[in-house]
Specification:
The structure holds 2 protein chains of 2 kinds. By secondary structure, chain A is an all-alpha fold. Chain A has 19 helices and 2 strands. Classes of the chains: A mainly alpha, B mainly alpha.
Chain lengths: 311, 314
Amino acid sequence: MALPDELEALNKAFSGHGIHEQTLISILGKWHPEQRKSFRKGNPNLFIEDERNFERWDDHHVRLLKHEFMRFKNAVVLWTMHPWERDARLAKEALKKGPQSYGIIIEIACTRSAEELLGARRAYHSLFDQSMEEDVAQHINGCERKLLVALVSAYRYEGSKLRDDAAKSEAKTLFDAITNDKPIEDDEVIRILTTRSKPHLQAIYKHYKEISGMNIEEDLDADLRLKETVQCLCTPQQYFSQVLDMALQKDVDKSTKKALTRVIVTRADTDMKEIKDDYHNQHGVSLSKKIEDTAHGNYKDFLLTLIARGG
Amino acid sequence: MATLISPDQFSPVEDAEALQKACKGWGTDEKAIIKILGHRNATQRKQIRQAYEELYEEDLVKRLENELSGDFEKAVYRWILDPADRDAVLANVAVRKAESNYHVIIEISCILSPEELLVVRRAYQSRYKRSLEEDVAAHTTGDLRQLLVALVSAYRYDGHEVNERLAKSEADILHDAIKDKAFNHEEVTRILSTRSKTQLRAIFNRYKDEHDTSITKNLSGDPHSDLQKALRTAIRCINDPKKYFEKLVRNAIKGVGTDEEALTRVIVTRAERDLNGIKELYYQRNSVSLDHAVAKETSGDYKAFLLTLLGKED
């Protein structure tokens, strides 16, 4: 008979992010056939009683398990990949998955440096025999298309020179557009967000708060794409910290869960420290502790190692 | 093929000294300037600038700007810059004049290779501390803005594959958009600004096969429409740059007066690329050589300089 502690440990080993390999080895590996049978009988969510008198693995759960086992492998592959290939593949995958993943395209276009984004576009040529903007334009329609194509095509000036008077008037333009509803259909909004340099946009961010009293992303609650765009351009660490928080909740869907690997692998060399700080400020617990509690096994160790680099 | 005649061996220091001699004192020896600079390629000109700076602690470009004047000065100024820097300057001039000079922006974004366009964008940022698309967007509006920003931001796939099925379907999309007079149709901008050049040429050919007229002819309905004109320019530049330049230079020369801005631009920007091909086309079309036409329509140092770049032997 399987001990209740062991059962609990085993169930825990299968849930959350990744697999606790050690538990599977030390508990499951030791069980006799009767113990395994009683495990199967005692877990109707994992095993169905088949009409021909045996307990059958539920297909859906086997698939889920497969994803969990693959989490470590995917993280390793993504980590070792050239950043250009990585971003190109992430963008393509997001495009194929559809609207719920388009935020990833915005993330890549807006949080990478001008040269990094260019590199991703080059890799896209090699990997998919077409340009990133071509593919995005072909698969997305309407106002979202205009925004996303312009974002992935941007090659922003990265110097610090900016005209504060222009920033101030553009902050006003944005405020008026947001107040008048449907800002994503406004050409000026698109122009400002997709062509201005990041330092210029930071200046706009400040002026906007003076005009509105609120931060611009707070006023954009009604427009998810624009909100993500502004967050990624102006407050990326906060954005990433939020994405991580969502990914680390219990019972989230597959795509949200995947964000954990994506964010940590893509930011470990860049601004992971600032993201960790923001996470701690927002949630009162360190990111490492949260990952320690939520993820398992090799996957967990790998993530913790990545975020520990650089302090 | 290029028309520029330049020596394999040369001495940047000697050239710098000769140029300094040509500029110092009262008056300027324009012939000497033409003789040297008119026979140096981009790499050589860069070395001469460096040598001049080291010898005289002065920017040769600024010196020439002060010494020369008129159309000759404009031509020499454009000639002596690095090609990418030159295009950045031309783009900036065009942007500031905006709606009337957008064809220069279309030329640059549609004729250059994807990598060359990228180098121009970097040169633009370096010189003006803003991105090219930022400036184009800020100085244009509406449909024209959509098209121009998309064209300058493109980083087209440079492969030679053609998807025939896609060529047909997109030729149909273009045809429908033009028929409905919906030139601001997002699909037109999408196709023209994102597809690879090889794919676009296939689309234009397919268009002609299916509808018996070229796409540019179908876009000639409204002589006052800037957008139609821009679309035609983009299509011509993508389809056949030499033919586009031949027409540009022909229009610059013919009739009363000469469009020196356009004439200089074509000769200076193409002398090291395909000016010879443009000359051949010009001769075929007009039964007179381009050299002859330029000699007739221009004068003085400006004329001498242009003819040198056109490959005139000393």
